[in-house]
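Side project, low priority. Logging it here so it doesn't get lost.
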Amino acid sequence: MSNDVFNIRARIKDAEREDMLTLTDGYMTAWMLWQLFDNEEAKTVFVGNDAEILLNTNWQDIKKIDN
């Protein structure tokens, strides 16, 4: 993957493998809005100490990946 693309890894708590596509839809949409359209509001979901995904107690093992 290109170095200019932001990477993040996270797991939703108590989700089965088959649930991942529907349960992650909001974050996938936000990531695409940010990466494809440079949407600043969507960016706040992932970037910063108070990024929304970091504060969401439904998610665990969150890791931002440096390229």
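Brief comment: The longest strand covers residues 59-65.
Revisit when time allows.
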